[in-house]
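> call design_seq(struct)
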């Protein structure tokens, strides 16, 4: 065992708990309101109550969602108008922690030394109380977590992780969980029991549509002809529509998780303008079928979510950290796409992303093509033998990215809106493909406990390597600079903060490797993060952190 590995192993000792720790609280909009006068605050390390855990924060991934909170302050949707100047919160929802002390009520379930990843998408009585937003997050050395995390709607929002998983790797199971969630069925693709339904017929259309008992469990059914009465509706069935404008109006009448079912044999008279922000945040669903059987549009068999086997997948926003995760997943997916095309306008960042991803493509025997998108339509036609992309994943939060995706998608393709565009953002899409050919328009936000548990299992089994996403790291003092780097898109990958390290400025892996031969030797293929490199980093900077606590 090397000196670095011995120092890294010693970090598992949790007996030396300081009386105080550092924290980056958020007091308002802007990076300047993170901390006090540009510095972290020193706060007491408490003792756990009966229903609490005291945890040490080992690693925190920074996320563009953190930037949204910084920009919006208390106006952020998950803060519900909170006055941060009086009631601050704390960023850090991608967190890996170690249990230090256990309250007496929790001793049957947890133990000192146990390692956990936190699932931040927490709900209490159906209301979002997300960790790192409503609940102060992990940009702190030590903190207490209790029922707000451990006894919410789905029980405990923590996932045990094995000791041999690196700290950065464990923290990044959370963003990876959001990637996994993008390919699970988060929409509702059957009529809602007890819901409010609308059936819209077309004037003069006397075809014998078979509605049957499709809406038999609805509490109310409203019927209209070429009109959209006042909503919202849980389910809307449109029989033989021709007008894209009417379909657009109907889509606006959908409730949260609402389903719009279009039953028709002829295309609409143009593209349909829909609220694509709702596709992402409200899980609105667009299903449909040809023929007369309304029920044929429903169900998971008709409405797929996984990437098409042996198909062509396009990831828009490929050079960013989340885009790279989607590409890596596609390349590693058993029976996944034969060709993955990554699109990003930034040629320099694209080249760095390709360098990191090329070894995975080679080992998986898959084709990877990276492009700035100058002639994307021609490239997709060539790679797909003219049929278009089977799947297009949009990780860039722009309307233009959605338009690009829709333009290159195959008739029976799937568009996954992963980027969080605000509710109220509108774009026109060729919705006729949904009922004529079974095309899918889906969107996801956040993840569930099961998604993150699945990522941990895949990581342990070698199917995923979350640490490969790391592009830059820093110690506790580097957190604000990490947030600025996010805003500036400075690095082609994830930024990870290690709250227990001191004197480590925000630094790219390449720059660390250039000045440290042992660290460089510990990196993986393509200069990617490994637990060996993490051990070297801890050996260099942990001792200073321990000394500063004495």
């Amino acid at each position: 065992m090397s000196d670095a590995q011995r120092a890294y192993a010693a970090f598992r000792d949790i007996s030396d708990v300081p009386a105080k720790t550092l924290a980056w609280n958020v007091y308002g909009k802007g990076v300047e309101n993170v901390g006090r006068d540009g510095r972290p605050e020193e706060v007491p390390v408490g003792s756990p109550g009966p229903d609490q855990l005291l945890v040490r924060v080992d690693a925190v991934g920074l996320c563009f969602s953190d930037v949204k909170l910084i920009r919006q302050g208390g106006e952020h949707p998950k803060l519900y108008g909170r006055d941060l100047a009086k009631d601050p919160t704390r960023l850090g929802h991608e967190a890996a922690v170690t249990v230090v002390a256990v309250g007496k009520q929790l001793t049957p379930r947890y133990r000192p030394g146990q390692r956990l990843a936190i699932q931040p998408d927490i709900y209490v009585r159906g209301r979002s109380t997300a960790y790192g937003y409503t609940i102060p997050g992990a940009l702190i050395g030590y903190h207490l977590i209790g029922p707000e995390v451990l006894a919410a709607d789905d029980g405990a929002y923590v996932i045990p992780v094995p000791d041999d998983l690196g700290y950065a790797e464990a923290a990044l199971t959370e963003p990876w969980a959001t990637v996994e969630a993008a390919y699970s069925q988060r929409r509702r693709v059957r009529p809602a029991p007890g819901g409010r339904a609308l059936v819209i017929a077309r004037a003069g259309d006397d075809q014998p549509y078979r509605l049957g008992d499709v809406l038999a469990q609805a509490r109310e059914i409203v019927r209209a002809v070429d009109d959209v009465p006042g909503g919202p509706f849980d389910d809307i069935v449109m029989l033989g529509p021709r007008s894209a404008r009417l379909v657009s109006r109907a889509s606006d009448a959908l409730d949260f998780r609402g389903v719009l079912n279009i039953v028709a044999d002829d295309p609409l008279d143009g593209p349909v303008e829909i609220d694509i922000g709702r596709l992402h945040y409200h899980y609105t669903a667009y299903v449909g079928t040809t023929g007369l059987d309304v029920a044929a549009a429903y169900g998971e068999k008709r409405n797929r979510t996984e990437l098409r086997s042996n198909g062509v997948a396009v990831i828009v926003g490929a050079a960013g950290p989340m885009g790279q995760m989607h590409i890596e997943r596609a390349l590693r997916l058993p029976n996944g796409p034969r060709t993955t095309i990554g699109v990003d306008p930034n040629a320099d960042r694209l080249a760095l992303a390709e360098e990191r991803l090329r070894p995975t493509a080679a080992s998986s025997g898959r084709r990877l093509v990276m492009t700035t998108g100058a002639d994307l339509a021609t490239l997709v036609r060539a790679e797909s033998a003219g049929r278009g992309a089977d799947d297009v994943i949009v990780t860039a939060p722009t309307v233009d990215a959605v338009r690009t995706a829709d333009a290159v998608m195959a008739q029976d393709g799937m568009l996954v809106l992963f980027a969080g565009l605000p509710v109220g953002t509108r774009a026109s899409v060729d919705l006729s493909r949904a009922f004529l050919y079974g095309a899918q328009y889906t969107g996801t936000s956040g993840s569930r406990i099961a998604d993150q548990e699945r990522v941990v299992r895949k990581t342990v089994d070698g199917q995923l390597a979350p640490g490969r996403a790391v592009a830059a790291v820093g110690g506790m003092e580097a957190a604000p600079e990490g947030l600025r780097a996010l805003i500036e898109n400075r690095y082609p990958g994830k930024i990870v903060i290690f709250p227990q390290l001191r004197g480590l400025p925000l630094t790219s892996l390449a720059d660390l490797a250039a000045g440290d031969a042992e660290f460089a030797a510990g990196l993986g293929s393509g200069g990617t993060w490994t637990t060996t490199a993490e051990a070297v980093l801890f050996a260099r900077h942990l001792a200073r952190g321990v000394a500063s606590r004495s």
